[in-house]
Amino acid sequence: MTMSELRSPVAPGEQAPAFSLPSVDRPEPVSLDEFRGRSPLFLALMVGLWCPFCRRHIAQLGTLDGRLKALGVESLVVVATAPENARLYFKYRPTPVRLASDPELTTHRAYGVPKPQPTPAMLEAMDTIRINPTGELPQPLPISVAGKILQEMDGYVYTPTDQADVERQWPQLKAMFMIDRAGIVRWSHIECGTEGLAGIGKVPSEQTLLDAARDLH
């Protein structure tokens, strides 16, 4: 899988790149400096709400937010869509986790999250590699089919904003980082980092995330 990226993904032991982004859930922007020296941060970089896997991951992270806070770790999910689009969605599907907007994927670029090149070989692989990352499908299905089935299950209809996000972002991968109080990355997970395209839609288990959070102290 050929990747197009400006840098390699930020690795444990490296300084987390600074960012300042519009908040989805409050009026003031959110930045890495807000957490530096105060608390560790769990940072999840998602793509737009057009992604059925991202919608599920955000809901899951909402249920994990309180357990991370109990460990002294704050959470921030970066959603790659315009603030107003995200606010409309989360008005009807509220989540306790803090949300930031980054439709241009500037944070993904800064953290070196890969974006595969949609080569003929990749497109062929998407029609042959079978996945069922959330266990909701009746059986593993080709990547190109699995996402469509989940969209149909959700009854999710693209807005013009979603369509523009797809055209600008696809096939951007997702990532998660645990950052300590000093702003150093201590743990990371890059989608497809170990399994190639078979890892589409997969995230670490809650236990893995909690263990990584405990290691921040």
Q: CATH superfamily, please?
A: Glutaredoxin
CATH class: Alpha Beta
Terminal residue distance: 36 Å
Work out the strand percent: 15-25%
Q: What does the overall shape look like?
A: globular
| Cα radius of gyration in angstroms | 17 Å
Q: What is the domain total for the residues? A: 1
Helix run count: 7
Give the SSE map.
Layout: E1 3-4, E2 20-21, E3 30-31, E4 41-45, H1 52-70, E5 74-79, H2 83-92, E6 98-101, H3 106-110, E7 115-116, H4 120-128, E8 130-131, E9 141-142, H5 143-154, H6 160-169, E10 175-179, E11 185-190, H7 206-214
Parallel strand pairs: 4-5, 5-6
Antiparallel strand pairs: 1-7, 2-3, 4-10, 8-9, 10-11
Describe the structure.
The chain has helices at residues 52-70, 83-92, 106-110, 120-128, 143-154, 160-169, 206-214; strands at 3-4, 20-21, 30-31, 41-45, 74-79, 98-101, 115-116, 130-131, 141-142, 175-179, 185-190. The chain is an alpha+beta fold and 217 residues long. The protein has one domain: Glutaredoxin, CATH 3.40.30. The chain has a 5-stranded mixed beta sheet with strand order 6-5-4-10-11, with helices on one face. The protein has a two-stranded antiparallel sheet with strand order 1-7. Strands 2-3 form a two-stranded antiparallel sheet. The longest helix is centred in the first third of the chain and has 19 residues, at 52-70. The radius of gyration is 17 Å and the shape is globular. The model is unreliable at 1-6 (pLDDT under 50).
